[in-house]
Structure of Chromate transporter:
Amino acid sequence: MNPLNQLKNLLQIFLISTRLGLTSFGGPIAHLGYFHEEYVKRKKWLDEKSYADLVALCQFLPGPASSQVGIGIGVIKGGVIGGFLSFLGFTMPSVLLLILFAQFASTFGLTDAGFIDGLKLVAVAVVAHAILGMAKNLTPDLSRQTIALVALMITVLIPHALAQVVVIALAAIVGFVMFRDPAEQTKTTSFPLSKRFGVACLTLFAVLLVSLPLLAQASSSMWLDLFDRFYRAGALVFGGGHVVLPLLEREFVPTGLISADEFLAGYGAAQAVPGPLFTFAAYIGTVIAGSLGGLFATVAIFLPAFLLIFGVLPFWQSVRHHEKLRGAFLGVNAAVVGILISAFFHPIWVTSVQNGFDFAIAALLFFMLMYWKRPPWVIVLTGIVLGTLFYS
C-alpha cells in the first residue's frame, strides 16, 4: 500500500471508530453488536469467522473486551498504528466527557447531593449482578468454586495489592496442572504482528504487574502510585467494565484519594456516556490530579489491554489449541471471581448498605436488572430518583 492510501486507510479507521465512540451506549455486549454491524456487515473489513475469533480472544483475556476487539480490528486493518487509532477514536469521547464532568462536579459541589446515596445502592446492584453472571460462567464446578473461595479468603484477609497478584499467579499454576480445556477446531485467523513483538509486549505486561507495586511502595511519587493502582485494575479485570468498579473503589476510596461520594457520582456519569466503562478512570484521575491526571489514568488503565492484545495476537492460534494453557486461564478466571467478591464486600457493601431500608432499595434495583432486564442506565436513573427522594 502506497503512503497516501495508507494515510487514507488510517484516517478512515479513526473516523469510523470516533463515530462509534460517540454513539455506542449500553456496555460491552452492545458495543460488540455495534462493531459487528459496522465492521463486518457494512465495511466488510473482516468476515464472520474472523470476527468471532477476535471476540473469543478478547473474552479470553483480562481487560475491557469491547475495547480490545476494537484495537484488534484496527490492527487487522492498519497494523499497530491502526490499533492505536481505533482505540483513540472509540475511547476519547467518553474520556473527555468524564474529565469535564469531574471538573464541573467539583466546582458546583454535586458530590454532596442526596442522589449519591442512591448511586451507592446502584453500585451494589450492578456489581452483584455482574459477579453472579461471572460466577455462573467461570466457576461452574467444585474445583473452580474452591479456587474462587480461596482467592476470596486470602484477599479479604490480606487487602494488599501484592496479595491479588500472588493469588492470580497461584491460580494460573493450579489451573495449568489441574485443568484441560479442549479447543474447537476453527479456521485460522492471521494478524500482522510478529511473534517477537508479541513476546516483548507480554514480557512488559508481566514485569509492570509485578514491579509496579514494589516501586510504588519504595517511592514517594504520587504519579507512580496512581499508575500502579490503575494498571493493576486494568490488568486483573475479567468480564467487562462493571467489574472494574470494586477494584477501583478498593484502590482509591479507603486510601482517601477520592471520597465515596465523589466516586459514586463519577460512576453514575460513566453509565450515562457512550464508549467503554473503563474510561471511569479518567474521572477518578481528574478528581485526584486535574485534567492531566485524567489522561494519565486513562493511559494506565488501558495499557494492560494494549500489551495483552498485541502480545497474544501473534500466538492466538497456538494458544487457543493448547489445552494446558487454556486450563491456566480457567484457574485465573476462577480466582478473579473470588477477588471481585472480596472487593464487593469491602468497600462496596459495608459502605453502602447500612440498614434494612438500604437493603430493600438495593434489592429492588438488583431485581430490575436481573429479572426485569432493565438496562443499566435505567437502574442509574432510578437510583438517582430514589436517592433524591429519600436521602436528601
In short: The radius of gyration is 20 Å. DSSP finds 16 helices and no strands in the chain. The CA atoms of residues 156 and 350 lie 13 Å apart. The chain has a mean pLDDT of 86.
